[in-house]
Amino acid sequence: MQISTRRGYLNKVTSFLVSLAGARALFGQQTPPAGTPPTSPAGDQPRRSSHVHDGIYYFSGTGSNDGYPRTDHVLVTDPFEKHVTRTMDALKRSVERNGCTMDSILHLEVFLCLPHADNVPMPTGKARFDAHKAQYDALNKIYGTYFSQGKAPSRACMAVEWIPGDSLIEIVGSALVVNPPAAG
């Protein structure tokens, strides 16, 4: 009797889990509501987004080729300092276009990567650490020039393996909207 009760319980639990998994698959494949833009293959998905919520501008994916025409893109083989300057310039334009200033930035997350190119050997061991440290030092020299004295935001800086868009740096963060753009 006990075996049959356990077996029945396990069958019910298994049936529930199967139906739950089926429901997830069913709801995950529903057509989007009317007015939703069509999705494209994963490689074509936009990687950048931004929005303002409760007076805070949230932005992501600012890199060294953002806001520049395709004919003026930097490559991973270009100097790191050029990547940083172009990224900070793009960030400045973005926050100002959304009613913020560089001094109203609340927090930034900065991602750095070493160049990946056939003609650039990837360092290993201590040389890799030293290469990331050199990038970090170069970033700090340029980064500080974009903020008023004592106004640099809190920041996290991370080394990653790859950043999309031929950029060696990408910045994500938030800023206080101090001068809301006119509605239009």
Report a brief summary of the structure.
The chain has 184 residues and is α+β, with helices and mostly antiparallel strands. It has three helices and five strands, in the order αββαβαββ.
Describe this structure in words.
With 184 residues, the protein is an alpha+beta fold. It has one domain (48-176): RutC-like (60s Ribosomal Protein L30, Chain: A), CATH 3.30.1330.40. 35% of the residues lie in helices and 18% in strands. It is built from three helices and five strands, in the order αββαβαββ. It has helices at 2-28, 80-97, 125-143, and strands at 50-53, 56-63, 105-112, 154-159, 169-176. A five-stranded mixed sheet has the order 1-2-5-3-4. Helix 2 crosses helix 3. The termini are far apart.
Keyword list:
single chain, 184 residues, alpha+beta, 60s Ribosomal Protein L30, Chain: A, five-stranded mixed beta sheet, 3 helices, 35% helix
Oligomer kind = single chain
Structural class: alpha+beta
CATH topology label: 60s Ribosomal Protein L30, Chain: A
Low-confidence segments, ≥5 residues, pLDDT <50? 20-47
DSSP summary: helix tally: 3
Strand content: 15-25%
Describe the main β-sheet briefly. Answer: 5 strands, mixed
Query: Considering DSSP H and I runs of 4 or more, what fraction of the residues is helical?
Result: 25-40%
Query: From the 3D coordinates, which CATH architecture would you assign?
Result: 2-Layer Sandwich
The gyration radius over C-alpha positions equals: 24 Å
Order of helices and strands: HEEHEHEE
The level 1 CATH classification is: Alpha Beta
N-end to C-end Cα span: 74 Å
